[in-house]
Write a structure and sequence with these properties.
about 300 residues, 12-stranded mixed beta sheet, 17 strands, globular
């Protein structure tokens, strides 16, 4: 058998769909990496698969940790840091996400016909208090695993997704628990490489790039590793993966953006739009600025 690389073996159910000779019993080894002074080394995990004939097959999954930010422990203490990477989403995976999540007992929130539908929990608040949950909005999704020593996120669309990992015991790759669940949801490509690098949470709100006419807080929200926490801190009205914004426009929006318009008055349009679509809205030729709605000041306030 393939040797363990600092982790422990766990079993997960996997419907391959590619080779009828491969059993659905999969053993996953997830390697842990210790980080000192901001630097690390590549580590390798592997998926061990056994065919119905007892033949061993190995699918290697390389977890490459690239630590390129800073070299001192003081910098780590001052600036929140996390691991980030991208993966390609298998074709058709998003279309089966809700059914797969229900099959393995992951609570879900689905945007359907203008409302949020919660499955597997009594309310959205109860769902968010759980260890695992999934949000779906068209082709956009957010999957979260909250454990005592780790918060791991996979969010994206039908083509690609980003992995975000926070851990209380340092910069370490995602746990085998997270990888098992992602694989069971059909979101983990078979084989290939996952390259993870260190990112820092900006201490100041970043400016949007040229041509993206978003208020800086909305641009910060798009890139923030915790969409829900950032939306709350920025005072934004969030519903599922959507936030309420106002677009100042000089013409008609692109047809693909029209379904997200709630109302319009003159040059102002109020939208409830998925967070990943904010940059596209900010690049629309008709838009001069996308900003949060103005909050009324309380009577007697300054």
């Amino acid at each position: 058998m393939f040797p363990q690389a600092g982790g422990r073996a766990t079993r997960a159910r996997q419907n391959s769909g590619h080779d009828s000779q491969i059993s659905d019993q999969v053993v996953v080894w997830s390697a842990r990496l210790s980080v000192e002074n901001g630097w690390g080394t590549p580590v390798t995990s592997a998926v061990y698969m056994e065919s119905e004939k007892g033949e061993a097959m190995f699918i290697r999954v390389a977890l490459m940790i690239v630590l390129a930010l800073g070299t001192g422990t003081d910098a780590i203490a001052e600036t929140p840091r996390y691991l980030w990477g991208e993966i390609a989403v298998p074709e058709g995976a998003v279309q089966t996400l809700a059914a797969r999540a229900e099959a393995i007992g992951v609570a879900t929130v689905v945007w359907s016909q203008g409302d949020l539908v919660v499955t597997g929990a009594a309310s959205e608040a109860e769902l968010l208090a759980g260890e695992t949950y999934l949000y779906l909005d068209g082709n956009f999704f957010l999957f979260v695993v909250n454990r005592p020593r780790e918060r791991a996120v996979l969010r994206g669309n039908a083509q690609w997704a980003e992995i975000i990992v926070w851990a209380t015991d340092g910069l370490v790759p995602p746990s085998e628990v997270f990888l098992d669940l992602v694989q069971s949801l059909g979101l983990l490509p078979m084989g290939g490489m996952i390259s993870l690098s260190v990112r820092e949470l900006p201490l100041k709100v970043p400016r949007p790039p040229e041509g993206v006419r978003l208020d800086p807080t909305l641009w910060a929200l798009v890139g923030h590793p915790d969409w829900f926490g950032a939306a709350r801190d920025f005072g934004l009205d969030r519903q599922g993966l959507r936030v309420e914004v106002v677009a100042e426009a000089s013409g008609v929006l692109a047809e693909a953006l029209e379904p997200y318009v709630l109302s319009s008055t003159g040059r102002l349009m109020e939208l409830l739009i998925p967070i990943p679509l904010l940059p596209e809205l900010g690049r629309d030729p008709a838009v001069t600025l996308v900003r949060p709605p103005f909050a009324p000041h309380p009577v007697g306030g300054r």
